[in-house]
Amino acid sequence: MNGKSATGRKPKSGAVVINLNYPLSPEQKKISDGVLENFKNKKDTLINAVCGAGKTELVYQTMAYCMSQGKTVAFAVPRRDVVIELWYRIHETFPSNYVVSLYGGHTDKLEGDIVVLTTHQLYRYDKYFDLIILDEIDAFPFKDNKLLNQMFFR
Fold first, then answer.
1. Contact at 8 Å (CB) between 113 and 97?
2. Angle between helices 60-68 and 26-40 (to 10 degrees)
3. pLDDT tens digits, one per residue of 58-102
4. 128-144: per-residue pLDDT in tens?
5. CA–CA dist 30, 49 (Å, integer)
6. Cα separation, 83 vs 56, whole angstroms
7. pLDDT at 141
8. Do 46 and 38 touch, CB atoms closer than 8 A?
9. Cα–Cα distance between 3 and 128 in angstroms, integer?
10. Is the peptide bond between 141 and the residue preceding it cis, with omega within 30 degrees of 0?
11. HSE (CB half, 13 Å, CA atoms) of 42?
């Protein structure tokens, strides 16, 4: 894939519904607003927090903003089991958007408003996504992998 999807499909612009059954804490909301502001200003953001701290929810606002602008979103994680779990969560959170999961052996659908994929599947997409969220950047396979780092940080 080179810049746009093979079929030319891009997510539709318009209202995006975030179905979150609980409010963010004031601290989470502040960080979420900062992530969105950084994205608008073309700045990368690193969220460093322990497992279960709500890091995923901190990027929902930015994901919604991107999709409302007709932009594509990737959520890359290191393991297939995490892709499957995260797909369900994101699918429930964004019920009006097309959410696809992509991992080894599960590659029949390559395009969506949000593509939840294993890190290595990013090889399929050259400059395709407008927003890439890379979870567990300190874990295998991303950590110390020069090729993945080059691909992601160019």
1. yes
2. 40
3. 999 999 999 999 999 999 998 898 999 999 999 999 999 999 999
4. 899 999 887 666 666 67
5. 15
6. 13
7. 65
8. no
9. 4
10. yes
11. 0
For residues 102-130, average pLDDT: 85
Signed CA dihedral, 133, 29, 52, 90: sign only: negative
pLDDT score recorded for residue 67: 94
Residue 10 has pLDDT above 60, yes or no: no
Say if CB 11 and CB 68 are below 8 A apart: no
Give the DSSP H or E segment for 147. helix 146-152
Residue for token pair 């890359």: 76
Q: Specify the residue for token string 């594509």.
A: 72
Decide if 57 contacts 28 (C-beta within 8 A): yes
For the chain, what's the residue count? Answer: 154
For residues 19 and 109, what is the distance between their CA atoms, to the nearest angstrom? 24
